[in-house]
Amino acid sequence: MHYDMSPLRLGILASGTGSNFAAIAQAISDKNLNAQIKTLIYNNPNAGVARKAEQWKIPAVLLNHHQFGRREDLDHAIMETMTAYQVDWVIMAGWMRCVTSVLLDAFPQRVLNIHPSLLPSFPGLHAVKQALAAGVTITGCTVHHVVPAVDSGPIVMQAAVPIMPNDTEATLHERIHVQEHIIYPRAIMLAATALSRN
Ligand code: GAR
User: Cβ distance 100 to 79 under 8 Å?
Assistant: First the structure.
């Protein structure tokens, strides 16, 4: 891979187990993504992603949403932390909070999210369960730019995942995760390359 840009400085937002965080860290370590993870911000004190950050020696900052009155207050703290770590791309990897223009305006066109469905189908919570309940035979995952309306910004990359007859939410989500880990590092590079050419 040819690198004609300096490494992207990523700030990750995550609330969950952190498999996407680890996949991004691994892609960087394997030199498949020209980036550095400057910081992880997580909002749930028990989130497994905090341990993953420890393993990868990446500074992790807990911003517990319960300690902020309004969404804007949390986003302001996120923005300040990201700025202090000199982040230039905000990467939501299992971040389960809506974000406001406080964060989006600070990182114009530089906030990405991954969602476990083929958007615009099944936005919002429990996307994998929604796909099973709808009886579709193909679902997948989407990396998209974040805009104020939930799960509706411009799409950067998608991967399709077939639904098997005996799938449960857990088995299907596991196969979606495999695809997420493949597309997220690629989508980050693609979005950054596209923006640099604008
Ligand atoms: C991922 O499947 C991601 O698509 C989903 O949370 C999971 C986090 O997994 N995000 C959303 O549902 C956002 N609406 P991880 O903690 O193992 O990366």
Answer: no
